[in-house]
Amino acid sequence: MAGLSIRDVGHVYDDGTRSLDGASLDLAAGEVVAVVGPSGCGKSTLLRIVAGLATPTTGAIDAPAARIGVVFQQPTLLPWRTVRRNVSLPLDLRGVRDDASVDAALHDVGLGDAHDKLPRQLSGGMQMRTAVARALVDRPELVLLDEPFAAVDEMLRERLNDLFLRLRDSRGFSAIFVTHSVAEAVFVSDKVAVMSPRPGRVAGVVDVPFGRTRQSDLRYAPEFARVCGRVSALVRTADA
Ligand SMILES: Nc1ncnc2c1ncn2[C@@H]1O[C@H](COP(=O)(O)OP(=O)(O)OP(=O)(O)O)[C@@H](O)[C@H]1O
Ligand SMILES: [Mg+2]
Q1: Ligand 1 test: best mutation among 12, 14, 44, most atoms within 8 Å of CB?
Q2: ∠49-211-22 over CA atoms, to 5°?
Q3: pLDDT at 117 over 70
Q4: Into how many domains does the chain fold?
Q5: For residue 91, is it within any domain?
Q6: Rg for the chain (alpha carbons), in Å?
Q7: What CATH code is carried by the domain that includes residue 214?
Q8: pLDDT, tens only, 177-207
Q9: Which of the four pLDDT bands, split at 50, 70 and 90, describes residue 66?
């Protein structure tokens, strides 16, 4: 588990586009924060900075986690590798052979039986679960998810959100989960950070008071709707 502090981060692309300006966010060890905000406000840029794939122009990330797993919007699987060999990729790149960790990751996402299939033989949900297993195989302290389930239908997204919460519980990682869906943000997180339009900063944070164990039908509870309402109101204020 790892906490993280994003301190007043600004970022300017080479062409002069200011993507972030004074973005601050704290993440406690084991905490999941969801990030919502208008398209182009710098959510993906912020994740890339936390992942160490981009450098902030101003500000800093304090105590970045040693091991980070990333799940992108598309599964981005290698078509010629089996499920098992896609999942083992982060280990292969480090020159590590660890069949037990690959088996555990496949088991945890429910893909134990599909380990020798190729990506084209999988459903969309199985492809995303392969991408999640790949992000988890190296036992990351911090998992970054950039609209991971945006391309799947609503019913499947709910099942993948349930899976995410089970994995978070059993593996104990911290996570930053970017999404366009307010309901998804509230369901998967301990708090929701709402970003302002570009150049983005965190306009406000809404606490999600539901504890770690959540049943699917929480989505239809009045208190769930109330928290979603608070997030939506903040989105509207930040966008004004
Ligand atoms: N390589 C780049 N060069 C210049 N500008 C860029 C580059 N990548 C992104 N941008 C700009 O930076 C801003 C932030 O981009 P980013 O991808 O972080 O937004 P986002 O919040 O993830 O959007 P979305 O919700 O659509 O995924 C956008 O206005 C985008 O046009
Ligand atoms: Mg993005």
Answers
A1: 44
A2: 25
A3: yes
A4: 1
A5: no
A6: 18
A7: 3.40.50.300
A8: 999 999 999 999 999 999 999 999 999 999 9
A9: confident
Q: Choose which residue among 6, 12, 13, 147 to substitute to test ligand 1 binding: the one with the highest number of ligand atoms within 8 A of its C-beta.
A: 13
- CA gap 124, 75 in Å, rounded: 9
Residue 203 is assigned to a structural domain of this protein: yes
In a domain, 99, yes or no: no
Strand order in the sheet with 191-195: 68-71, 142-146, 174-178, 32-36, 191-195, 202-207
Please tell me the predicted confidence (pLDDT) of residue 153.
Answer: 87
- Residue identifier of the C-alpha nearest atom 18 of ligand 1: 42
Tell me the mean pLDDT in the region 40-63: 93
Identify whether 234 is part of a domain: yes
pLDDT of residue 2: 66
Question: Could you list the residue range(s) of the whole structural domain that residue 229 is in?
Answer: 4-67+140-239
Cβ–Cβ < 8 Å for 196, 226: no
40 in contact with ligand 1, CB cutoff 6 A:
yes
